[in-house]
């Protein structure tokens, strides 16, 4: 009877479980890191190193994190951790945006629901409620971010509502005030009638909207050329509500226009027989269709012939007009007029359009007061006083309730040619989701030109690194064409615009002593001091408060966040920071948001960008490429993923994705990441088991290792080089895919497969086994450190399994120092040929298994036919060991016709043969020598190993 050799086999042994249980494991590791003060320890370890400063773009403190937040913060954490492990001093200070409309809107809702008017609440009380709301969500979001494994100075984050921050923001505004860049002007701005405030470009998003369209006739009262006498100039607009604000018409001087006569009108048409109409030539046929009429062309004229033409307002003779529209409407040349839609004429309402405003100003046309902040017409507006330009219907969609009254009024005057509806992309508030209007109002602006801000910003863009590179062109195009920066908001929750206006001349007071007193007050009391203090506190003895108006508009929140570089990177609250930041990292929409406002603020006050590099990522979509929405039921909650699968799965999704474009996520994609994670974990588990009990004496110098181990070290050098390139380029997914393939293919399916026999069955002092264990320990060390920035929890678990310690962490180490001598391209080329040959052998054996002629490859002793350079490559190799067979006959020459071949590997063939002899009871090889050694039932190698073991 054969002996039991089970106890003589060196089987892997580890406490590292196959099943991760990440939802339970990760909170325990978070507690461990908190107890040991990991962030502070990392700061100590990195002291004196080259600094890397990723400045955090502040999320808004008003709700649970969504998957976009998770992508953003995980990517920041990955970059911070990789930079630390490259040997840099990384100081990550997370922050929050706290002021602004979303929070104010929530507090207003509370009062509205209680039937109270928030304007009756003392402003300081209202602001404190906003502040408390922000604090509550900061605490919630902080824990949610930490749960994702994001490491940083969570005990000392920054917020835009601290006294120090508000003082700095006021001080930064003061720099623009004192140098003359800040001014009060009347300009058209995007206005939210729902929120009763101006909005910045970054606060606007575009959605489909249905608008009423009208074709309106403007009777000519003074013709610029004989051809249009007695005619009507026709305009087309998608904003009927702007008609009461009309003061002019615009035409294209170079375009061809026609004067047509209405010769036929279908039933229901508003066109009147015999009417003469002036239209752009290219659209005359389409206008006829829209008006359900037929036209005859009377004249063709050039647009420039219209110069000097005066029309009357189409509502002049309405019975309720009462003189409200008794003014001439001049036709003016405008370079913004187009011929692709409409009539070739643009109706000009200087109070409700940017082109309108500038054309009107160029011709001395005053801006009328038409629409009030709440979206209703001023009492002075004839016919429509008090009506609303925008309302929300029962179906939740917004519409213009005044469109129909305008349409009916035009019809009553005989000046409506046609009407219809159009679905088009239209600007909306990203907060209330309500459509916006252009409204010309007095606002505070920073000039883009007076002090060269545009030129400074464009120069700064040229010297900044953008990843992806096209970001440079995107933000550059925005800066080139952007208007002056509108800073004022007509709200209560924010840093006030700390300006006094001299009532005697309308000019802002530019006094550095006044500004210094304001900043000092904010440092001790916060910006509420602006509301609680008498003006004299700030004006001092040099200025009489009676002569000055104190401004109570608040700053655009983008100015707040644009100043964060000043109070975080330059502030005294955190030591070890650095200005400018090494990197800003946000979604691609921030080219018009935080990147943009930070650039303008810093260039205006410091002459350069506050960052050396800008990295952008895409948006997160569902698996089908659709935007996530509750109504579609396709929202992926990061909290749910973390609670059910673990944060490391989300982290692998981030680094395994091309985040330069939009990313997709959903159940199937997450399932793929779970599979990837399982392969990585199994690799770590196998390595941990393989190196159990490894002593320093057992380690083998690289020079004494077999080629196979040196090939593994070569692969480590390649992957290390790829990692460093990935870190430099902030592009991780190609490298991460290579790392995964290294684990799944190079190691698990090749190296581990081959070396399993030596690891389990060789004597403990064999060169082959010592080399394998030495290399496996090197690989384990490298994998733990390489995975640490990406799968931070699992890497820590594996590290502590290998190096149990109360105060150690993989996150306190740098990436492994891979010797350049490990790189051996010639050896790699040779082993690629060996692997090609092996692939033919394994293919042949798989066919034998399918045919049930063998069970295990160890039951085979195939004949391998090989020639040329492939024969040279395997000449000094034990191909039976590499192909995991009990024997293998190598025959140099062409394979016979009966041999198994692969079409992509020429000159190699395999004739399967069964191994002869008995099965070794220890290593399971089938060899003739089994049963003829010292120990019964084993081969010679195993007999020697048993003897040595004792």
TrEMBL record:
The EC number(s) given in the record are 6.1.1.5
Could you give the cofactor binding note from the entry?
Binds 1 zinc ion per subunit.
Q: Which residues bind L-isoleucyl-5'-AMP?
A: 586
> Cofactors per UniProt?
Zn(2+)
Limits of the Methionyl/Valyl/Leucyl/Isoleucyl-tRNA synthetase anticodon-binding domain:
709-859
Q: What is its main location?
A: cytoplasm
User: What is this enzyme's class at the first EC digit?
Assistant: ligase
Where does this protein hold Zn(2+)?
A: 920, 923, 939, 942
Question: Where is the chain membrane-spanning?
Answer: none
Q: Where is this motif: 'HIGH' region?
A: 59-69
- Residues binding ATP: 630
* Highest taxon in the source lineage: Bacteria
What are the protein's UniProt keywords? Aminoacyl-tRNA synthetase, ATP-binding, Cytoplasm, Ligase, Metal-binding, Nucleotide-binding, Protein biosynthesis, Zinc
Task: Name the catalysed reactions.
Answer: tRNA(Ile) + L-isoleucine + ATP = L-isoleucyl-tRNA(Ile) + AMP + diphosphate
Q: Where is this motif: 'KMSKS' region?
A: 627-631
Picking any one GO molecular function of the record gives: isoleucine-tRNA ligase activity
What is stated about domains? IleRS has two distinct active sites: one for aminoacylation and one for editing. The misactivated valine is translocated from the active site to the editing site, which sterically excludes the correctly activated isoleucine. The single editing site contains two valyl binding pockets, one specific for each substrate (Val-AMP or Val-tRNA(Ile)).
Give the protein's biological function: Catalyzes the attachment of isoleucine to tRNA(Ile). As IleRS can inadvertently accommodate and process structurally similar amino acids such as valine, to avoid such errors it has two additional distinct tRNA(Ile)-dependent editing activities. One activity is designated as 'pretransfer' editing and involves the hydrolysis of activated Val-AMP. The other activity is designated 'posttransfer' editing and involves deacylation of mischarged Val-tRNA(Ile).
What family classification does the UniProt entry report for this protein?
Belongs to the class-I aminoacyl-tRNA synthetase family. IleS type 1 subfamily.
According to the record's subunit comment, the protein's assembly and interactions are: Monomer.
What name goes with this protein? Isoleucine--tRNA ligase
* Upper lineage: Bacteria, Pseudomonadati, Pseudomonadota, Alphaproteobacteria, Rhodospirillales
Q: Which gene encodes it?
A: ileS
């Amino acid at each position: 009877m054969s002996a039991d050799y089970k106890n003589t086999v060196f089987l892997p042994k580890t406490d590292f479980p196959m099943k991760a249980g990440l939802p339970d494991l990760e909170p325990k590791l978070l507690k461990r890191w908190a107890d040991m003060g990991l962030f502070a320890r990392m700061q100590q370890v990195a002291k004196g190193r080259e600094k890397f400063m990723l400045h955090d773009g502040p999320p808004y403190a008003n709700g649970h994190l969504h998957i976009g937040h998770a992508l953003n913060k995980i990517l920041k954490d990955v970059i911070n951790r990789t930079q630390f492990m490259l040997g840099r001093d990384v100081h990550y200070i997370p922050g929050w945006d706290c002021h602004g409309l979303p929070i104010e809107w929530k507090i207003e809702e509370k009062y509205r629901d209680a039937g109270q008017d928030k304007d009756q609440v003392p402003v300081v009380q209202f602001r404190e409620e906003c502040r408390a709301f922000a604090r509550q969500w900061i605490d919630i979001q902080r824990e949610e971010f930490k749960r994702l494994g994001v490491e940083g100075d969570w005990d000392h984050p920054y917020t835009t509502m601290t006294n120090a921050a508000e003082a700095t923001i006021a001080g930064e505004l003061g720099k623009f005030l004192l140098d003359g860049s800040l001014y009060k002007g009347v300009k058209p701005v995007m206005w939210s009638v729902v929120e009763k405030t101006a909005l910045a470009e970054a606060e606007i998003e575009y959605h489909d909207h249905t608008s009423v369209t009208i074709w309106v006739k403007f009777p000519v009262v003074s013709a610029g050329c004989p051809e249009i006498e007695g005619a009507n100039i026709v305009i087309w607009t998608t904003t009927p509500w702007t008609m009461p604000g009309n003061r002019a018409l615009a035409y294209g001087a170079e375009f061809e226009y026609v004067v047509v006569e209405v010769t036929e009108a279908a039933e229901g048409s508003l066109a009147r027989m015999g009417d003469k109409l002036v239209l752009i030539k290219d659209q005359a046929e389409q206008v006829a269709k829209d008006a359900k009429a037929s036209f005859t062309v009377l004249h063709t004229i050039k647009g420039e012939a219209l110069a000097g033409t005066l029309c009357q307002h189409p509502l002049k003779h309405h019975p309720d007009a009462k003189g409200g529209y008794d003014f001439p409407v001049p036709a003016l040349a405008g370079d913004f007029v187009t011929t692709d839609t409409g009539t070739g004429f643009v109706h000009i309402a200087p109070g409700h359009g940017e082109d309108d405003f500038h054309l009107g100003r160029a011709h001395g046309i005053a801006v009328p007061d038409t629409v009030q902040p709440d979206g209703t017409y001023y009492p002075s507006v004839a016919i429509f006083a008090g009506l609303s330009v925008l309302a929300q219907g029962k179906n939740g969609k917004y519409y213009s309730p005044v469109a129909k009254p305008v349409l009916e009024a035009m019809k009553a005057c005989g000046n409506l040619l046609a009407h219809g509806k159009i679905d088009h992309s239209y600007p909306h508030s990203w907060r209330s989701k309500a459509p916006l209007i252009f409204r010309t109002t007095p606002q505070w602006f920073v000039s883009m030109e007076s002090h060269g801000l545009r030129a400074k910003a464009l120069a700064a863009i040229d010297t900044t690194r953008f990843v992806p590179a096209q970001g440079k062109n995107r933000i550059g195009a925005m800066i080139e064409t952007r208007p002056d920066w509108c800073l004022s908001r007509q709200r209560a929750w924010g840093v006030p615009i700390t300006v006094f206006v001299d009532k005697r001349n309308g000019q802002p007071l530019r006094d550095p002593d006044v500004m210094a007193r304001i900043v000092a007050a904010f440092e001790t009391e916060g910006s509420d001091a602006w509301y609680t203090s008498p003006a004299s506190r700030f004006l001092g003895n040099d200025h009489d408060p009676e002569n000055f108006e104190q401004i109570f508009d608040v700053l655009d929140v983008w100015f707040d966040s644009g100043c964060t570089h000043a109070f975080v990177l330059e502030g005294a609250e955190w030591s070890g920071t650095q200005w400018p930041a090494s990197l800003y990292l946000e979604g691609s929409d921030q080219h018009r948001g935080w990147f943009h406002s930070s650039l303008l603020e810093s260039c205006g006050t410091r002459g350069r960008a506050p960052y050396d590099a800008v990295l952008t990522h895409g948006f997160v979509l569902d698996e089908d490429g659709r935007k996530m929405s509750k109504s579609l039921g396709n929202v992926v909650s990061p909290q749910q993923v973390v609670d059910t699968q673990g944060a490391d799965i989300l982290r692998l999704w981030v680094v395994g994705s091309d985040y330069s474009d939009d990313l997709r996520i959903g159940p199937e994609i997450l399932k793929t990441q779970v599979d990837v994670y399982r392969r990585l974990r199994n690799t770590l588990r196998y390595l941990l088991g393989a190196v159990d009990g490894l002593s320093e004496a057992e380690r083998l110098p690289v020079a004494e290792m077999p080629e196979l181990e040196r090939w593994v070290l070569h692969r480590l050098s390649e992957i290390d080089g790829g990692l460093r390139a990935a870190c430099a380029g902030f592009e991780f997914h190609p490298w991460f895919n290579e790392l995964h393939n290294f684990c799944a293919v190079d190691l698990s399916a090749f190296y581990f497969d081959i070396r399993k026999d030596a690891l389990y069955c060789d004597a403990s002092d064999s060169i082959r086994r010592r080399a394998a264990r030495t290399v496996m320990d090197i690989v384990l060390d490298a994998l733990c450190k390489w995975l640490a920035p990406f799968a931070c929890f699992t890497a820590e678990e594996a590290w502590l399994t290998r190096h149990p310690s109360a105060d150690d962490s993989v996150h306190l180490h740098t990436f492994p120092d891979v010797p350049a001598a490990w790189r051996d391209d010639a050896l790699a080329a040779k082993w690629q040929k060996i692997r090609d040959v092996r692939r033919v052998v394994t293919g042949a054996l798989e066919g034998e298994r399918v045919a049930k002629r063998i069970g295990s490859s160890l039951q085979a002793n195939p004949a391998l036919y090989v020639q040329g350079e492939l024969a040279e490559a395997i000449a000094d190799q034990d191909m039976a060991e590499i192909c995991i067979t009990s024997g293998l006959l190598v025959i140099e020459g062409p394979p016979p016709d009966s041999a198994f071949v692969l079409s992509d590997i020429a000159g190699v063939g395999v004739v399967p043969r069964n191994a002869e002899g008995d099965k070794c009871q220890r290593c399971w090889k089938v060899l003739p020598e089994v049963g003829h050694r010292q120990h019964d039932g084993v081969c010679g190698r195993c007999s020697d190993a048993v003897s040595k073991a004792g």
